[in-house]
Amino acid sequence: MISITGATGQLGSAFLRLLPAADGLTRADLDLTRPDLLRDRLDRLSCDTLINCAAYTAVDQAETDEPTAEAVNALSVEVMAKWAADHSVRFVTYSTDYVFDGTKSGPYVESDLPNPQSAYGRTKLLGERMASEANPDCLVLRTSWVISGSHPNFVSTILRLAREKSISVVDDQHGSPTLADDLASHTVRLLDLAAVGLVHATSEGATTWFHLAQAAAEIAGIDPDRISPCSTAEFPRPARRPANSLLVSERYPEVGRMRSWRESLPSAVEQILTWL
Ligand SMILES: NC(=O)c1ccc[n+]([C@@H]2O[C@H](COP(=O)([O-])OP(=O)(O)OC[C@H]3O[C@@H](n4cnc5c(N)ncnc54)[C@H](OP(=O)(O)O)[C@@H]3O)[C@@H](O)[C@H]2O)c1
User: Fold this and answer.
1) Which helix (H) or strand (E) holds 229?
2) Which residues line ligand 1 (CB under 6 A)?
3) Which pLDDT tens digit goes with each residue over 51-89?
4) How far is the CA of 85 from the centre of ligand 1 (A)?
5) 5, 34, 52, 53: which to mutate for ligand 1, most atoms within 8 A of CB?
6) DSSP-based helix, strand, coil % in the chain, nearest 5
7) pLDDT at position 36
8) Atom of ligand 1 nearest to the CA of 94
9) What is the mean pLDDT of the chain?
10) Burial tier of 104 (Cβ tally within 10 Å: 0-12, 13-18, 19+)
11) pLDDT tens for residues 94-139?
12) With 0-12 CB in 10 A as exposed, 13-18 as middle and 19+ as buried, what is 82?
């Protein structure tokens, strides 16, 4: 049996589409703001694999609420990792490109030194480290720019706004959009290889938020010229984002690469258009 936390989120629900027999856990089942209460809840699970898709993902909000983000993204992850080690349960959790400062000129590999610039990035890095220390056999996947067709996200926001008006989108942050469903399948392939430790996992291909927005608009039949590029400085946000957050993996080449974000974007956009 596989248990999946964050069942209501983008990645958790992608897992439940891929593995319908899995046990999807919501905030009501496991509240990660209370790491002190988690063990008791975890003891009620009967799984051989625990995949943690839950996270405090409100990047800007974390700047003023770091203790809660830390409880969810680090302290609870440590409890789950330790519980899994104690019960011979495989444990998988996810981290982020935002652990890097974005100053490297090429893509980041697993051995590059993190230097988070935001509270969210700090809490996710702490979670990576606490999980690996508590459970050296756990799998920690760093991913980036997660999108899906089933949930509100950057792409759905852009499509909703661009339908109504002209908008500007940041063109000086570079990363890899990653389809949640592809990441779920990739995770299962890594589990089949008995992968452990830190592994980068993103869709192939690099872009900027601006080019992603234009590509999504084109697929949706919206005039891409309604979207114009702007700089990060013109669109200030509470949390600093890395200018370059491209990730590539030097580990488990036998797992193969995920398909490119350009290949996966049309299915996500088509699904978004059914509910937007
Ligand atoms: N989204 C991205 O662009 C991105 C980029 C890099 C890495 N990641 C990482 O990828 C993983 C999956 O992200 P995602 O995009 O699927 O996130 P998401 O759509 O924001 O989903 C987050 C999930 O976590 C749950 N959650 C939040 N706080 C919780 C709490 N206190 N207790 C229990 N559950 C809680 C949410 O439940 P509710 O529905 O009840 O809020 C939701 O199910 C996360 O580790 C994230 O940090 C995401």
Assistant:
1) strand 227-230
2) 6, 8-12, 27, 30-33, 53-57, 72, 94, 96-97, 124, 143-146, 151
3) 999 999 999 999 999 999 999 999 999 999 999 999 999
4) 23
5) 53
6) 45, 15, 40
7) 95
8) 45
9) 97
10) middle
11) 999 999 999 999 999 999 999 999 999 999 999 999 999 999 999 9
12) buried
Could you tell me the pTM of the whole model? 0.97
**d(Cα 33, Cα 178) in Å, to the nearest integer?**
27
| Ligand 1 centroid from CA 53, angstroms | 6
Tell which residue, 17, 11, 14, 38, has the closest CA to residue 27. 38
What's the confidence (pLDDT) of residue 211? Answer: 98
Sheet holding 197-200, edge to edge: 23-25, 2-5, 49-52, 90-96, 139-143, 197-200
Active site residue 120: yes
What is the pLDDT averaged over residues 267-274?
A: 97
Q: How far apart are CA 10 and CA 228, in angstroms?
A: 27
Assigned CATH for 2-151+177-206+246-258: 3.40.50.720
